[in-house]
Amino acid sequence: MTAPASEASRPVETSSDAPVMAWRPLLLMAGALGVLLLALSARYGYHRDELYFRVAGRHLAWGYPDQPPLLPLIARAVTAVFGDSLVALRVPAALFSSAGVIVAALTAREMGGGRRAQLLTAASYTVCPFAVAIGHTFYTATLDLLLSTGIVWLTVRWVRTRDQRLLLAVGAVAALALNVKYLAAFLLAALVAGLLVSGPRELLRRPMLAAGVLVAVLAVVPGLVWQARHGWPQLDMASAIADKGDFAGRPGFLPFQLILTGVFTSWLWIYGLWRTYRSDGLRTFRFLGHAYLLLNVLFLITAGKPYYLSGLWAALWAAGAVEVERNGAPRGFGWLTSVPVYVITGITTVLLTLPVYPVQWLADTPQPVINADAAETVGWPRFAAQVAGVYRALPPDERAAATIVVGNYGEAGALDKYGPGLGLPRAYSGHNGYWYFGRPPDTGGPTIVVGPDTVAEGAGLRRFWSDVRPVARIDNGVGLDNQEQGKPVWVCRGRRASWTQLWPEFKQLS
């Protein structure tokens, strides 16, 4: 009997061994998602993060307290080339989401999935509530999902082919991912750990691994230098944004993954996870299961958010789809792979995540509860107009010297977008990166302050001004409960010190 070949000496498959891609239906699926997202891109308005990225793009730096530099750089490029519009900013988001559908199908192909497995994986991605929701808006999560999914796909492909060049490609994509979110480092570490546990362990003996690591490290060094020079604010930011309620905290970590991936389609990635441990046909890809479980433990301990694992969902869907294609669905689950189920899931996802309702109806739909970010895209022009009303009500001599300070970067970004047309001076905020964009000038005039949220909390403003008066309250006009709704607007006079002295007190991370 011949001894089994060692891991390093096993035959290396070529790309021709992989099944043929079902390009036509896959491109139709990806295109349909992209067209839908673009068709709805101008509905409602900017999300607060998009307003922030617009301004951050004009203050380019190697880092920010809440993120690496790539998203503001892309925002700067988009507005420079295509103009400063909501649609222009959302075109990349739609393209990223469409590309993710194809990368998901490519992952299934690398696992040996034929036409059915590819379409099942791509369909699961296409109707995924999280993927659709973030595809509508230019978030860090939008590009992060594509790049993380791409890293996993390239790793799966390397495991199948052992083509060293893929390790360099992983390093290049990781370089981009790390400049979108530093959290990508945890995905990379989990993949390596999974490979070390279940193989192929020859990864560490490949020279191209060192080259890929070098590319990723060199790409992230400028951002880390910025962080070091500014006292590592990203570490404080990580603590500030830990999930303490948005996704029901630790108890909601696992259940919300089912909601984010789709109630009827989540079974497929759970099945895929199980089969990576049970199926001989997926034994090669068992490292994906290890990586997923490791990240679950890590983010449960650190109060991470459930979508931090989203880069692995496509690969787990692919594993499940490959098993369904080869052996059929588990007894009683076959109906979940039918076209009607995916159509119904897609329609439900659209109704719960995308701006399809008249804005005046939105507050009475379940969408703001399921997708709270939808509420954060409503009311910005009206917000700016209400602040402008307070500004115009000031006596002319005070108006000429007035300054504006708001509670968060979304409010500051909205006034940056709509304020000039209303005659407003520049707005300032101490929130996250906006604090670094400059402090108000020492004009000697009054300051219009949006927030704190209640009159009682507004008493804290007297630390900075001797005369503090609430004069208005923000109302988006459609009864929608979002972060700005009901906030008081204050006129503050008698500043107790210069802005140079006071501005550090306004610095906040959240």
Report on the architecture of this protein.
- The structure is a single chain.
- This protein is mainly α.
- Helices cover 54% and strands 5% of the residues.
- It has helices spanning 23-39, 48-56, 70-82, 86-110, 115-126, 129-135, 140-161, 165-178, 184-198, 207-229, 233-240, 253-261, 266-278, 286-301, 310-327, 339-353, 367-370, 380-393, 396-399, 409-418, 455-458, 499-502, and strands at residues 403-406, 427-429, 447-450, 465-473, 488-495.
- A five-stranded mixed beta sheet has the order 2-1-3-5-4.
- Strand 1, helix 20 and strand 2 (427-429) form a beta-alpha-beta unit.
- Helix 7 runs antiparallel to helix 8 (165-178), helix 8 runs parallel beside helix 10 (207-229) and helix 9 packs across helix 14.
Rg over alpha carbons: 25 Å
Instruction: Please state roughly what percent of the residues sit in beta strands, choosing from under 5%, 5-15%, 15-25%, 25-35%, 35-45% or over 45%.
Output: 5-15%
Output the structural class. Answer: mainly alpha
Biggest sheet statistics: 5 strands, mixed
> Number of helix segments?
22
Share of helix, binned: 40-55%
Low-pLDDT segments: 1-15
Number of strands: 5
* SSE arrangement, N to C: HHHHHHHHHHHHHHHHHHHEHEEHEEH
